[in-house]
Model the fold of this input.
Amino acid sequence: MCVYYDITTPDKAYEFLTNLGFTDQQLVNEFVLECEKDSNEFAERNIAILDTIDIFNVRFIAFHVTASLDNCQEIKDNGIRDLQYVLSHQTKLTRGLELSGIKIDIDNCILYINDNAYNIDYDYYRDQWRKTDLEKILDFIAHRIYYDFCVNGFFFNDNVADYGTDIHKRPEFIDKLIELSPKVRKLDAFWRAKSTPYKVFFYATVNQIHKFSFDDLPNNFEPYSESELTHIKKWMLRNAIDRAFSNCFDEKYIYIRDNDYIPSEQIIKCEIME
Done:
């Protein structure tokens, strides 16, 4: 049986806990009074309640933020894809970049701006200790394409508009390209003016999620050990109780494993941001 883990809002987190069998009185007495709002202690004391849950049957609910020019139709058709996929296929972003004189050869690590070719080999820049201003920009772009390219989102974030990089107004990837081509500035302005900000809610399974999304787990693709699965169960309880009682930070990230994605059938809804 599938279990839905949803902490996108405090109410959803509270609902998850009550679905586990906690009563309102138990949550107040144990978490607030006995544990003094220490979510680690709460998780340790109640880990047995998750013994019957198979982590591999849990559907973790999260949302991806996008600035859409087509009411999320591209996402509905193709799913939520990683940056490498988006830049190597005909998408709204690649068409906009091409009109701005930008082409990216993912396989050969080359960025073309009009008639000029630039090296965006991530390994090359990792070995450079001293970089020119141009190389620093190219290094950032290479890092984004070849290292930090996975699908990502939030288990929760109540202040997306204050996130800092305007991810709800235009693709974040455009930002650094502006420094290389004035035409991209026009693309940035167009996207900001014409797009609609969306939260795209989806579910992911544990095998789709980078281990480090669960805090303090290694960044590897090895099968989950028993201790790691126990860690995730404690993580679930800890974050659910903190979220339910508004006892946490403003955001919690989710990272989908490299070269994986969220297919359209795992998309729950596309919701316009207020």
About this structure: DSSP finds eleven helices and nine strands in the chain. Residues 43 and 237 are 5 Å apart (CA to CA). The chain has two domains: 3-60+202-272, 79-151+170-195.
